[in-house]
Amino acid sequence: MRVIETIADMKAFIKMNKEKGKSIGLVPTMGALHEGHLTLMRRARESCDVVVATIFVNPTQFGPGEDFQSYPRDLSGDSEKAASAGVDVLFHPLAAEMYPPGYATFINVRGITEKLCGISRPGHFQGVATIVTKLLNIIQPDRAFFGQKDAQQVLVIRRMVQDLNLDAAIEMVPIVRESDGLAQSSRNVYLCPEERNAALVLFRSLKKAEQAVSNGERSIGRLKDLVKKEIAAERLASIDYVEMYGYPDLQPLEELRGQVLLALAVRIGKTRLIDNMILEDSPACC
Ligand code: AMP
Fold it and tell me: What number is the average pLDDT over the span 1-30?
């Protein structure tokens, strides 16, 4: 596996492979790789000739007071893991390579960024849309792979790719969880053992809602209340948001109809965790 640090070298590598007719798969990450990331990489390996993963802790998607400085970084561990998942190239640019002095261009996706994480993290999706556009332009992938863990992010990127006539197919990979249900996240390393245990409340509350739906509950208000009550019972947890919107349009609903995204952001101690589940109104029988 090759590690590339400059945009010029990355473009030269892509040009050479495109000339050979190779298909390119892209997996953007911020590093501190875990099974969630590696699943995306393996998925890319299965369907593309050349797999490029990027490791870039993108400063523009962090707000003031967020964890940009302390975000876990481990390039040598990440290199081993990415190579074992079949990655051909790890693109690992410096911040000054991606945002040189005088940098002034940002991408804003309206509407779907104005809810969920867009409210609690102002500017976050502008940073995400901007860096993903830059990576799509530099790497020109046939397919780019993103996790359902960040379901709103996938919707923002799909909207942007469509609106800006970009060519990459955007593939969403299901959430990878620990054996006890906690969604894998680079931020899980911030949790002390007591918090790690408390963090199970996210998945537990999603499962409660799923169970209620399969028992026939259709009221969005009651489903959200059920989830909030479960989280409120966990002493170390405080709710940032618990929301349910139609999926994939993120329109508000009163009754469960078709697919609905149940999305949570919860602070466990100082660590903000997100999780979600796509719930479905079971099709009418016969
Ligand atoms: P990050 O490094 O956190 O920016 O994540 C990079 C990519 O990995 C994003 O597309 C995430 O949605 C995806 N990802 C992170 N955690 C998981 C997970 N537990 N399961 C599936 N995909 C994930």
Answer: 98
